[in-house]
Amino acid sequence: MSTLTIPRIELPCQTTENDADLWFADQPNLLEEAKSLCQACPLQVQCLESAMEREEPWGVWGGEIFERGVVIARKRPRGRPRKNAAVA
């Protein structure tokens, strides 16, 4: 009798070299790092779709940042915003 071995899929969010807190960090640069790790994930699309269905309150899911259940482009750092908007 032979046993069938199924190859294990390497997911960036579940490897021991990536801290799980990275996907729920407060610092925008860490969230951008998590987003970049998601780009190579074979389950990125499914992860994003599921997170949108669940209305995940926060974190990086499927390569996108969620805040209050909505996808946002970038997370702003903590603190007060500038009084004068920076000129681009």
Automatic annotation (TrEMBL):
The record describes how the cofactor is bound as: Binds 1 [4Fe-4S] cluster per subunit. Following nitrosylation of the [4Fe-4S] cluster binds 1 [4Fe-8(NO)] cluster per subunit.
Q: Which GO terms describe its cellular component?
A: cytoplasm
Q: Where in the cell is it found?
A: Cytoplasm
Write out the GO MF terms: 4 iron, 4 sulfur cluster binding; dinitrosyl-iron complex binding; DNA binding; metal ion binding; protein-disulfide reductase [NAD(P)H] activity
Q: Does the record bear GTP-binding in its keywords?
A: no
Checking PROSITE patterns in the record gives: 4FE4S_WBL (PS51674)
What region holds the 4Fe-4S Wbl-type domain? Answer: 12-71
Its post-translational modification remark reads:
The Fe-S cluster can be nitrosylated by nitric oxide (NO). Upon Fe-S cluster removal intramolecular disulfide bonds are formed.
Binding sites annotated in the UniProt record for [4Fe-4S] cluster? 13, 38, 41, 47
Chain's role: Acts as a transcriptional regulator. Probably redox-responsive. The apo- but not holo-form probably binds DNA.
Extract the PANTHER family matched here.
TRANSCRIPTIONAL REGULATOR WHIB7-RELATED, TRANSCRIPTIONAL REGULATOR WHID-RELATED
Protein name in UniProt: Transcriptional regulator WhiB
Q: Native species of this protein?
A: Gordonia neofelifaecis NRRL B-59395
What gene is this protein a product of?
A: whiB
